[in-house]
């Protein structure tokens, strides 16, 4: 038992540090590539510091997203290093079977996977929301008639554009088209709207353009009340991309869409993708073990890393393919996520069984 405990710690720490190194590398590359791609959006309002802040806010969700692939490549690197120095051979000669080494490698992966779930629930939604609000508020063009992103709703017969919303019942960048049948009476722009309760909102930073038969008038005021039958919670959820929502928010909004007879596919798919990431990580670790003890046991470190990247890309593409198929067919989103995971489990276990 003492020997197994030492093996658990040694193998587990080797894999853990390798996974963290791979994760840091992937996050660094993603940060640099995204910065280079987005630098063209920098202007007087959206400065370089704002861009860096937005990218920094996006790191928690990137951590959770890259975790399965990092576990795959990290396991290949960690166990591959032990195999290169013949330490794996010594461990197996001491009577430790391959499956027991696998348990040692999976222990830190399971801890990281659970940490990734916690980040998806509590950290990344808040950070993504701050990044979205910062980006959309600072990138708004002076010519606000060019509206991009955000969401449109119809309230009291008027069309309303909302640039962004947060979980505190605050809307940002509103444009209200006050109309009468086919006649446009006015356009009301507001920097933000705060929910007061009982379908009452307070608009702040109001600019009202009034259209009359002979002229156009513009009025400005610091704030004004606005009566609108909007549900702040559902409105907030509707303005967010499914990937930016927490697990409970995804479940809540998917349930709401289902109760209203609407399509909840993208939200259910994202919910199962996040919930099953720990299983994805374990499945890819098993595939990594099967290659270390199997066809890649004599390969160089570069060859193992390259193989890990190829396997990771294939897995992510399979996950995306079956996920999209579930949205277009009668396949439940749960199965669209589970099929690639089960395939990885099957391939890895079959290869390990042949070598044990």
Structure description:
This is LPS export ABC transporter permease LptG. With 356 residues, this protein is an alpha+beta fold. The chain folds into two domains: 2-138 and 260-355, no CATH class; 151-237, no CATH class. The protein has helices at residues 2-38, 48-57, 59-84, 87-93, 98-138, 232-238, 247-259, 265-275, 277-292, 301-328, 333-355, and strands spanning 151-155, 158-165, 170-180, 183-197, 200-211, 216-227. A six-stranded antiparallel beta sheet has the order 1-2-3-4-5-6.
Task: Summarize this structure as a short list of keywords or feature phrases.
356 residues; alpha+beta; 2 domains; six-stranded antiparallel sheet; 11 helices; 62% helix; LPS export ABC transporter permease LptG; membrane; transmembrane helix; LptG; transmembrane
Low-confidence stretches: 141-148
Average pLDDT: 86
Radius of gyration: 26 Å
What kind of assembly state do the chains in view correspond to? single chain
Major β-sheet profile:
6 strands, antiparallel
Written as H for each helix and E for each strand, in order along the chain, the element string is: HHHHHEEEEEEHHHHHH
Give the tally of structural domains: 2
What best-fitting shape do the alpha-carbon axes yield?
elongated
Give the class from helix and strand content and strand pairing.
alpha+beta
Strand content: 15-25%
User: Between the first and last Cα atoms, what is the distance in angstroms?
Assistant: 21 Å
The level of helicity is 55-70%
Number of helices: 11
What is the spatial order of strands in the main beta sheet?
A: 1-2-3-4-5-6
Number of strands: 6
């Amino acid at each position: 038992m003492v020997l197994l405990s030492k093996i658990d710690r040694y193998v587990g720490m080797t894999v853990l540090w390798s996974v963290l190194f791979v994760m840091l590398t992937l996050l660094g590359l993603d940060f640099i590539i995204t910065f280079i791609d987005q630098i063209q959006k920098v202007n007087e309002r959206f400065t370089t510091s704002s861009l860096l802040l937005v990218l920094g806010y996006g790191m928690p969700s990137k951590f959770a997203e890259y975790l399965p692939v990092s576990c795959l490549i990290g396991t290949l690197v960690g166990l591959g290093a032990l195999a290169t120095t013949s330490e794996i051979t010594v461990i197996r000669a001491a009577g430790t079977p391959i499956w027991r080494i696998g348990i040692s490698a999976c222990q830190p992966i399971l801890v990281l996977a659970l940490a990734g779930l916690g980040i998806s629930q509590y950290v990344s939604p808040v950070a993504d929301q701050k990044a979205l609000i910062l980006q959309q508020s600072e990138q708004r063009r002076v010519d606000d008639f060019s509206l991009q992103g955000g969401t449109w709703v119809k309230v009291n017969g008027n069309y309303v554009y909302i640039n962004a919303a947060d979980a505190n019942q605050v809307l940002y960048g509103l444009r209200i088209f006050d109309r009468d049948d086919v006649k446009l009476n006015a356009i009301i722009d507001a920097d933000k709207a705060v929910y007061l309760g009982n379908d009452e909102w307070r608009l702040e930073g109001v600019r009202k353009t009034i259209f009359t038969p002979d002229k156009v008038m513009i009025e400005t005021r610091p704030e004004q009340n606005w009566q609108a039958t909007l549900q702040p919670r559902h409105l907030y959820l509707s303005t967010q991309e499914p990937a930016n929502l927490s697990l409970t928010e995804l479940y809540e909004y998917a349930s709401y869409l289902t109760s209203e007879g609407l399509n909840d596919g993208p939200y259910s798919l994202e919910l199962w993708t996040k919930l099953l990431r720990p299983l994805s990580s374990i499945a890819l670790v098993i595939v990594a073990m099967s290659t270390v003890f199997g066809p890649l046991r004599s390969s160089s470190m570069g060859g193992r890393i390259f193989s890990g990247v190829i396997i990771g890309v294939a897995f992510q593409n399979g996950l995306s393919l079956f996920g999209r198929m579930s949205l277009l067919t009668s396949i439940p989103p749960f199965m669209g996520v589970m099929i690639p995971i089960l395939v990885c489990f099957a391939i890895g276990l079959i290869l390990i069984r042949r070598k044990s």
